[in-house]
Design brief:
about 575 residues, 13-stranded mixed sheet, 2 helices
């Protein structure tokens, strides 16, 4: 393996290296170590770096604007040595496409003009909230009765609805304030950088609170990998991002270690870094490991591991189905299926797996329409589901084993971890203070179409603090919420299977600890649950453990410490 010390090849600190770095990567595609020296390096939007990619769970753009770009590279290393990459406007900092055996370490990603803003509460009434918004930290302007933010490269964006409120001391989302800060208009006050946000309805906030002001759309990921294999990221700090932090789609064997999604407080940012999720793992196979990472202040879930289901809507011939993507932020994928992949057929109303078959070919007809051809003729049962409008398809080959250990899930909007994979999953030795459910086990072919039935999940030796489930977001029925989207549940056909929750510590203000829906083989044992004095009970008419349409469950040998008011177990 050869080593390129990049300063010897024209990559100089304090300069724009966008095109020069792309050229060096293109000329050294294999068996190369690229060495940066510590310092600041700049990237800016270039016409040559606009390329077509369909990103999972991301707003559609015909072209994405790329920064560092690695295409079809193999056996390479990037050694950052503490370098900081600075970006402006909407860009995708790092893209890996069809790469194999790549490692990237010791880097920081940041923006001088961030893609998420903050305000500090100066006054509160039922009609309005006055916010101090630093023009130095978050460049902005009033345009009529709206506030707009400058993100660089001549781009300005209007405030996105549903700002999130953090209390200022521990930087946790203020209790019962999920998605409640809805503004009608914004006006000036007599004080510099203080603006009056007129409300649709009163909101629960106090002077000194930090209000995260999202704007624009989720146009790019921070680190994007597609159709890659054996990729490792280590010691990467993300101070800013305009969409999903790390998006890995249709990859195999991904390792994320010491990934830090944290605010750059030296630039006056108290909680903000990413606009949306931290890590999104879509349709991966092999093993995905996320260890020793830290998250705070994200505006969506720190980790989401799932597949992508499509609907089977028309029989083209005896072996071929015309299928559709249904969610507008997950369409047009080139690699949803390949020859030999195992495809599951799902009855959407009850989400039961009816059969599986081997794919022969896959063809994209448009962003939302694809053809899937199978090796054998489809059965009468599958044809009947197509004709009844009940069929969904899920690619079982593109599912991964998932290991999540030793991570800190600081307070953020929404949940901590979402996981939907049938392969072995271990979530252990993590610390949670997510404002919604700490762990959500979803599964869906009816709404978000983030597919995946769980078949072997262990949740052990984690700490769930009283900051968990202090606001109610979608699917947040318990600190651990097993909550697939099943319109017509059938107790004889449970969706999730073999979930073990063992040896964890919870601090609960009579908040539901576990919600289980449509699950077989659910174990909740040897857990220690403290009654937290931090809050009054959140849901007085709900049991500590709620099970619905569950079979073969085992709730035993748990230690409850404190004066809990709610009953322990409710079964429907």
């Amino acid at each position: 393996m050869k080593t390129l010390v990049l300063k010897e090849f024209g990559i100089q600190k304090d300069t724009d290296i966008t095109l020069a770095l792309c050229d060096i990567f293109a000329q050294n595609k294999e068996d190369t170590t690229f060495v940066f020296e510590e310092g600041n390096y700049f990237f800016s939007p270039k016409e040559e770096m606009k390329m077509e990619y369909n990103l999972s769970n991301t707003t559609y753009l015909p072209l994405r604007t790329l920064g560092a770009y690695m295409k079809e590279m193999k056996n390479c290393k990037i050694e950052g040595n503490g370098a900081t990459f600075w970006f402006e406007g909407h860009m995708q900092p790092l893209t890996l496409d069809h790469c194999e055996n790549i490692s990237v370490k010791d880097l920081t990603f940041n923006w001088k003009k961030p893609l998420v803003a903050e305000g500090i509460v100066k006054a509160v009434t039922d009609e309005y909230v006055d916010l101090y918004v630093s023009s130095e930290s978050f460049p902005h302007r009033l345009n009529g009765d709206q506030i707009e933010f400058d993100v660089g490269a001549g781009e300005w964006y209007t405030l996105f609805q549903s700002p999130i409120i953090f209390e200022p001391h521990f930087r946790t989302v203020r209790r019962n304030t999920a998605d409640c800060f809805w503004t009608k208009s914004v006006g000036a006050t007599d004080e510099k950088d203080v603006y009056r946000f007129y409300l649709h309805r009163p909101t629960n906030t106090e002077i000194g609170d930090i209000v995260v002001l999202r704007h624009n759309e989720r146009y790019h990921a921070g680190i994007f990998t597609e159709k890659c294999k054996d990729i490792t990221f280590d010691n990467i700090t993300v101070h800013c991002c305009g969409g999903l932090g790390c998006l890995s789609q249709f990859c195999e064997n991904m390792t994320y270690s010491r990934m830090y999604f944290l605010p750059d407080r030296s630039l006056g940012r108290f909680v903000t870094n990413g606009r949306d999720d931290g890590m999104h793992i879509t349709c991966n196979k092999g093993k995905v490991e996320i260890t020793d990472c830290s998250f705070i202040g994200l505006m969506d879930d720190p980790i989401n591991v799932h597949g992508c289901s499509i609907t089977g809507d028309e029989l083209k011939d005896s072996k071929t189905i015309v299928c559709h993507y249904k969610h507008n932020q997950a369409m047009g994928f080139d690699y949803w299926a390949e020859d030999g992949d195992e495809i599951a057929f799902i009855d959407r109303p009850n989400m039961s797996r009816v059969a599986t078959a081997k794919a022969k070919s896959y063809k994209v007809l448009s962003r939302d329409t694809v053809l899937v051809e199978f090796k054998e003729a489809l059965s009468d049962e599958i044809v009947a589901l197509i004709n009844a409008g009940r069929l969904a398809l899920d690619n079982l080959t593109n599912t991964c084993e998932f290991i999540c250990k030793n991570n800190r899930f600081g307070s953020c909007r929404a949940r901590g971890i979402l996981v939907s994979t049938p392969k072995t999953t271990i979530i252990e030795n993590n610390y949670f203070e997510s404002s919604g459910a700490a762990i959500l086990v979803p599964g869906d072919a009816n709404n978000w179409y983030e597919s995946g039935e769980v078949g072997d999940l262990t949740i052990r030796n984690n700490v769930f603090t009283h900051a968990c489930l202090t606001s109610v977001y979608e699917f947040c029925q318990g600190m651990i919420s097993i909550c697939p989207t099943i319109p017509e549940p059938d107790r004889e056909k449970p969706f999730h299977k073999n979930i073990r929750i063992i040896g964890n510590t919870f601090d609960s203000s009579d908040t539901p600890v576990l919600y289980g829906y449509s699950c077989k083989g659910l174990t909740f044992k040897d857990n220690l649950i403290y009654k937290s004095p931090a809050y009054e009970k959140n849901e007085p008419n709900t049991a500590r453990i709620n099970l619905r349409y569950c079979v073969d469950y085992d709730v035993d040998n748990n230690k409850w410490v404190g004066d809990f008011k709610n009953e322990i177990l409710k079964v429907e």
